[in-house]
Amino acid sequence: MKTRIIVGSRGSKLALRQTDLVLDRLKSFYPEIACQVRVIKTTGDRDLKSVLDEIGGQGVFVKELEAALLSGEIDMAIHSLKDMPSELDMDFKLAAVCMRTDARDAFISSSGLPLAQLPLGASIATGSLRRAAQLRQCRPDIAISPVRGNVDTRLRKLNAGEFDGIIIAAAALARLGWQDRITEYLPIQDFLPAPGQGALAVETRAYDTDLNPCLEVINEEPLWQSITAERAFLRTFGAGCRIPVAAFATVQAGNLRIKGMAASIDGTTMLRDFREGPAPDAERIGRILAESLLGLGARELIHG
Fold first, then answer.
1. What is the pTM for the complete model shown?
2. Which of 57, 137, 147, 193 is the most buried (most CB within 10 A)?
3. How far is CA 60 from CA 10, 18, 80, in A?
């Protein structure tokens, strides 16, 4: 194991907290290493007004970190896994995944009322097409307010009365110690999460033969199998997919079960299905689930 590692991270409170969690786990196996965290500002951090899909989708929180990896400025990067594209360039490697504390979405209400009890026409903020579509399914009367920014920025806007509620990943709030703000955890059967949601990822240079084997100790195999299925599901829809999709997989006793969703932008059409099978077949199972939804009508939603 290298004795000194330079670690790339975005600069938000959440990103730095997640980086610390992964490094604490790594140091528990390699107490002799010294880690220096280098903050890298990404396109997604600089542009807080544009819709993510309009400025590059998932890659907007990753590409500057990958550039720093390629240049040798950093040795590894730590991401929220859901921010990573489903396909990596051959120069990079997803070296480890860990610490999926909670994949659910959480609802925070300014009034303390749960989602079902909000008055007609209440406004809820989210920057996610996936969350918006599922929200419209259960509360078509709700006014959806687009929002971007770090978790603390979004909560300040809620506190200022800009909207009546907000939906945020439960894992983000837990890692920041802000669980007490949560009005309710949204059930996965109604709010299926984004592929990789709640999990942390370590990305490295594919050819770093010194570092990559050492990171295997923090990789969690059942989680690896789950996210392999989820990312295969997402990848099957293709890089040009601009409709809401969601997937969540679990592994128990060597058996993998994955649920998937694809919807129209307005949430009026929503397709759901699931598959299960041996966990080592995770890639195939995720792909088959996506192909099923494409056959049920998701292909027509993508192509309009």
1. 0.94
2. 193
3. 11, 18, 12
Q: Where do we find the tokens 């929002």?
A: 147
Q: Is 20 a catalytic residue?
A: no
Q: Which residue has the tokens 């099957």?
A: 236
DSSP string, 25-93: HHHHH-TT-EEEEEE---HHHH--SS-GGGTTGGGGGTHHHHHHHHHTS-SEEEEEGGGS-SS--TTEE
Give me the phi and psi of 207, to 5 degrees please: -95, 10
Diameter over CA atoms, the chain: 58
Place of tokens 């975005």: 10
Pair 249, 229: CB distance under 8 Å: yes
Distance CA 257, CA 229 (A): 9
Question: Residues 157, 163: contact at Cβ < 8 Å?
Answer: yes
Active-site option among 45, 75, 83, 102:
83
Confidence of residue 241 (pLDDT cuts 50, 70, 90): confident
Structure tokens at 266: 């307005």
How far is Cα 273 from Cα 165, in angstroms, rounded to an integer?
Answer: 29
Q: What's the pLDDT tens digit per position in 88-139?
A: 999 999 999 999 989 999 999 999 999 999 999 999 999 899 999 999 999 9
Query: What is the phi-psi region of residue 101: left when phi exceeds 0, alpha when psi lies from -120 to 50, beta otherwise?
Result: alpha
As a whole number of angstroms, the distance between CA 295 and CA 298 comes to 7
Q: Which residue has the tokens 């010194």?
A: 210
Separation of CA 204 from chain center: 18
- Structural domains in the chain? 1-99+199-219 (3.40.190.10), 105-185 (3.40.190.10), 220-304 (3.30.160.40)
For residues 183 and 165, the answer to whether their CB atoms sit within 8 Å is yes
